[in-house]
Amino acid sequence: MLATIVACILLAFIFGTGARMLRLPALIGYIAAGVLIAPYLPGAVAERGMVTAMAEVGVALLLFSIGLHFRPADLLAVWRVAVPGAVVQIGIALGAGALVGIGLLGLPAAPSLAFGLALAISSTAVATKSLEERGKLGGPVGRLALGWLVMQDLVVVFALVLLPALAGGAGAGAGPMLLGLGKAALSLAAFVLLMALVGRRVLPWALQWVARTGSRELFTLAVLAAALGVAVLASSLFGVSFALGAFFAGVLLGESDVGHQAAAEATPLTRIFSAIFFVSVGLLLDLTQVADQPLAALAATVSVILTIGGSVLALLLAFRVPPRIALLVAAGLAQIGEFSFLLTEVSIGQGLLPDTVRGPVLMAAIGSIIATPLLLKAAEALAPGLERRLAGRKPATAPRPPPIPWPVLTDHAIVVGAGRVGSTIIGALRRHHLPLIVMEEDRAAVERLAAEGVPAIWGDATRPEVMEAAHPERARILVLALPGALEAREVLRLVRQANPNIQTVVRSHSETETIWLEAEAGVGLVMMGEREIALGMADFAMQRLGLAASTAQATVDVLRRRPAEGV
User: Fold this and answer.
1) Do both 216 and 289 map to the same domain?
2) Is 284 a member of any domain?
3) Which PANTHER family match (predicted)?
């Protein structure tokens, strides 16, 4: 176990770094690391079952994190496109895959359908990871792709019920198959109903209660318990896939005001385990199986890329989705992964498919996964030309952005920290009804501000997932009232990335820190506590000794610009 974990993490880092140095996506390096430690090569020590289990946790955490950034309204907005589109796309890709099974693998009709289905379901982990790396996951491309993927995952749930019926042949009859489908539909409906009625209230309440304890460790554990606990509940009691259960947990928590901090806590583990998922893909590759069926492996790979990608693009354009969005969604979905492996293994276990199909399916998965970043790059290059050709067409209504708990703010102040300093600044801004958003780690302080009608975000402002909620790209000024200098620097860096021209005022704690902030960070105003106390007292003394207020203020301004040693 220890050797497997160390090998996965160490080699993923080494090969991922190598891939980035060659200007390739890191996931290609992760897959190469998996091939190197696969049990099919001499001297390999990896335990395949353990890596597969860790990969399943990684996919679940990835979907949980994605769910935190989505709202039910986002999915409903794309449902009228995603539901019919995914069903038709699966039918087209299934048919093409079945032809490959019949023509090159010699499969009968029923097994060829199972083989075709394995080549028709996109990998949620690959699609979301690839879109996230290109910054497309949070916009309309991400919402449409995720709605499509969720529909595919639901098809997998029902396909797992149908596979035993296909394995039994025509003699099994339609009755047992319809009964199984009915049970699956009822189980899925019961899970969704439980999450809507109970989980929607219990999960946010539980995390809010933990947040009030002030323990970051307990909150991190609570986030993981919510994600994986709901995933286990979904898979063991309701027959819903482990990853899809975690996604629903994320969607429910994303509606609460703890969602941003939950995303920040889950992100590091998600990145580690999602890298292990790609290692597990390489770990499954048996080159001897591929060598036995080279034409079938090549045909399966081409079938996946062309039929999934091509049908998604054609369907989205038929639904009048803007060309750029359609191209990016099609490129992101043109691959297969974890659910294809699951369907293949279940079919082999049922005696529906022979062991020899593993090679073509694995080759199709690895080939299409490696091609995905290249397809996305090509999609961005082709988008302007396609837009010009379809310029006269009226586009469909774009998906609505997710709702926020307060009106959209522009030219607002972001006040980070609501302690003694921050609360004074907040009070001054509120007195004149100036727009502001407060960011604070103290849960009780956030709840108090929210009750007073002040837009307040609970979480660590140094985490990108939390800072995004304050929309720094639309803000006019950043007020850093944090007590820690290192945290202030990190927040300043994040905000400047989103809005290089934002005005800033920062609380400093030493002369060295003040000089650095004024010189290197280009901060508009740096306030050092002890110096401001001294200047305030000096101003009071000068005026009481007869100096005019303007003269005293001019002296204070001169002294503020000097180092403390020169005062």
Assistant:
1) yes
2) yes
3) CATION_PROTON ANTIPORTER YBAL-RELATED (PTHR42751:SF1), SODIUM/HYDROGEN EXCHANGER FAMILY/TRKA DOMAIN PROTEIN (PTHR42751)
- pLDDT value for 402: 44
For 102-117, write each residue's pLDDT tens digit: 999 889 888 898 899 9
Identity at 502, one-letter amino acid code: I
Segment 183-211, tens digit of pLDDT: 777 887 888 888 888 888 888 888 888 88
Answer yes or no: do 376 and 455 share one domain: no
Residue whose C-alpha is closest to residue 535's, from 516, 518, 560, 554: 560
Which letter, b or e, does each residue of 53-86 get, where b requires 16 or more Cβ atoms within 10 Å of its Cβ?
ebbbbbbbbbbbbbbbbbbeebbebbeebbeebb
> Which pairing describes strands 503-508 and 436-440: parallel, antiparallel, or unpaired?
unpaired
* DSSP track, 267-300: HHHHHHHHHHHHHHHHHT--HHHHHHSHHHHHHH
Q: Tell me which H or E stretch contains 458.
A: strand 456-458
| End-of-domain residue from the set 507, 523, 539 | 523
Q: Is residue 352 part of a domain?
A: yes
Phi, psi of 378 (to 5 degrees): -65, -35
Distance CA 15, CA 32 (A): 7
280-290 tens-digit pLDDT? 777 777 777 77
**Burial (CB count <10 Å: 0-12, 13-18, 19+), residue 482:** buried
Name 320's Cβ contacts closer than 8 Å, sequence gap at least 6.
393, 394, 395, 396
